[in-house]
Write a structure and sequence with these properties.
Order of helices and strands: HHHEEEHEEH
Strand order of the largest sheet: 2-1-3-5-4
Distance between the termini: 38 Å
Helix content: 25-40%
Radius of gyration: 15 Å
Length: 119
């Protein structure tokens, strides 16, 4: 569903600034996420084209840790413009789900999958 992909918590996950939906929801609930300069505390907030997401400076070290721990796979969605240096995300295009790579899917750890076949 296109609206699921537009939710703030999902966009944070897709951008690799967090490692899980739970991390995303905690950042939002604690008031560390801003959309267009306004503090957002609702994780199901629906974003629209042109929205800019930023984080409070106090969580930048935590975000750096999450980024380093992230596999950065799958690649961030094409409708997002991400600056890992400025800790900023912009929704630059309308979300159009045309293939399965744009849909929310389970994330697989390829090393774990390969480990199963090596046994």
């Amino acid at each position: 569903n296109k609206f699921f992909e537009q939710r703030l918590d999902v966009v944070l996950l897709r951008s690799h600034f967090v490692l899980s939906i739970r991390n995303s929801r905690q950042l939002i609930a604690h008031g560390n996420v801003f959309v267009n300069g306004d503090r957002i505390k609702n994780s199901s907030f629906v974003l629209k084209k042109g929205d800019c997401i930023q984080f409070s400076k106090k969580v930048h070290p935590l975000l750096q840790t999450y980024i380093v721990k992230s596999t950065l796979w799958p690649l961030p969605a094409s409708y997002l413009q991400i600056s890992y240096k400025a800790f900023q995300i912009s929704l630059v295009n309308s979300i159009i789900l045309t293939n399965t790579s744009d849909k929310f899917s389970l994330w697989l750890n390829i090393n774990e999958v390969m480990g199963i076949f090596k046994k």
